[in-house]
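Could you help me review a protein record that somebody else here produced? This is what I was given.
***
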Amino acid sequence: MKWLADLLLGGVVEKFTAPLLSAYQAKLAAETDSERLAADEAIKGIEAARDIAVAEAADRWSATRLGRLLIVIPFGLWWAAIYLVQILNPWFGLSLVVIDVPPRINDMALVLIPAIVIGDAGALLARRLKR
């Protein structure tokens, strides 16, 4: 049964189990109301992050997931290559060059990446308001 949950959820639940457990223990060990409130806030934050991760793991074909895979990751790798070349060239006397992203793709990325980030933020806000 565990292998099926790991297959469907990608081990998401286990990543949040230990932090959630320690937050609940902190709430039980709290001696003042402010400590209990802080622990409650930590619990809410961890649960919200867990819920988002579980929902996203269940929806493998969501627009934001596809956007991340097709737009954000390649664009991020391109930027990482630029920084890596800027570091390696002076250190090793190389003359590596990163070819610039074509202008049309760059223009699309400058629109789509913020849209994906806003979509993720909107999904988080909607889940929080639903509670």
About this structure: Helices lie at 2-9, 12-29, 33-58, 63-92, 103-130. Residues 3-10 have pLDDT under 50 and may be disordered.
